[in-house]
Amino acid sequence: MPAALEARVDEGRVTLVACHAEQFCRTLEERGYLEGGRLYPLEAAFQASRGRVALAGGQTGWEAFLDIIRITGVPLKLAIVYRLLRNRYPEVREWTRPSTLLARPRSGRPLEVLVLEEGEEITIEGLLEWSEAAAKDGHEPVIAVVDRNGQTTFYEARSVGAIV
Amino acid sequence: MRGPVARGRLYGRHVIVESVEEARSLYALGFYGKPLGVDKPSGPNFDSPLLVSPLEAVYLARKGHLEVVDEEGGILSPEEVEERLLSDERLRMLYRVYEDLRERGLVVRPGMKFGADFAVYRYGPGIDHAPYLVVVRPLDEAMDPVEIVKTGRLSHSVRKTFTIATVRRDGSVRYVMFKWARI
């Protein structure tokens, strides 16, 4: 499938150069991924990985994916988890709490995904506070753990006062 | 309140109920203790003394179900039992969680064979299959998230819910329950 969109990535931004598939670009605009000629970097990387976005320098596919995250400074773990979530959910965004993504299913509560990485320790208190804050905002708290092999495991992580 | 159903003697960090009859009564009260020489008791029908863990002994002494005597046969108050058996911070934290679970009517058994602190049953071993594995951690302890994955996978493979329990600064117990999410 040819790239639907050509973009340039520099100074930490991904900018639209040319749109070759009107419907694709319109959908990106409708979902807020393309605004004022600028592409949301995580979405740009995701679309590049599936061959829908090419870079003006000729990079496509995973080469473009890596260029986008490197130049825009997106953490690799976030891009990996974003990609997995976007394969399932139409709308995924970075959320306001550190290292979190918000995935909106077509129905039901949004998933707030805390992206963790092997070797990056978290305190029990930190986990509790995050889980409780997410639930308070009406989100389903989920952790995504990216291990050293790049494998990602997802767990719902609910803080409760009683297990039964 | 009824008097104690059993008398136990301190043996180091454990309590042994030497009378088999009392041992059976205590076990029947809520699956407390482990009959010596019996791996999986099928009920309160064993013929050996009962080994009671430090957490169980403190809980039962506080509830008035177990009278504990020291090595010389002197009766210990529940506070003295606690002082003798909950000798460090980790044990006190484990006790706090144990007590919280027991007070909610759950049956709490050792979870060591699953790599956890407790295996928690709604009804008891032999009746249901310990749906929860509980690992107790200090509030301020940092953990590698991969530990969650490892324990979570093990729990999932034996159809149990992996739970981390912690004790807040106000003494309340909080649980984080992990359920594998297919994404």
How would you sum up this structure, described in words?
The complex is a heterodimer of chains A (about 160) and B (about 180). Chain A has about 160 residues and is an alpha+beta fold. Helices cover about 35% and strands about 35% of the residues of chain A. Chain A has a five-stranded mixed β-sheet. In chain A, β3 (about 35) and β4 form a beta hairpin. The model of chain A has no long low-confidence stretch (mean pLDDT about 95). By secondary structure, chain B is an alpha+beta fold. Chain B has two domains: about 5-85, 3-Layer(aba) Sandwich (MutS, DNA mismatch repair protein, domain I); about 90-180, Trna Endonuclease, Chain: A, domain 1, CATH 3.40.1350. Helices cover about 30% and strands about 30% of the residues of chain B. In chain B, the strands form two sheets. A six-stranded mixed β-sheet of chain B has the order 3-4-2-1-5-6. In chain B, strands 7-8-9-11-12 form a five-stranded mixed β-sheet. In chain B, β5 and β6 form a beta hairpin. Chain B is globular. The mean pLDDT of chain B is about 95. Classes of the chains: A alpha+beta (about 160), B alpha+beta (about 180). The interface between A and B is medium-sized, with 33 and 37 residues.
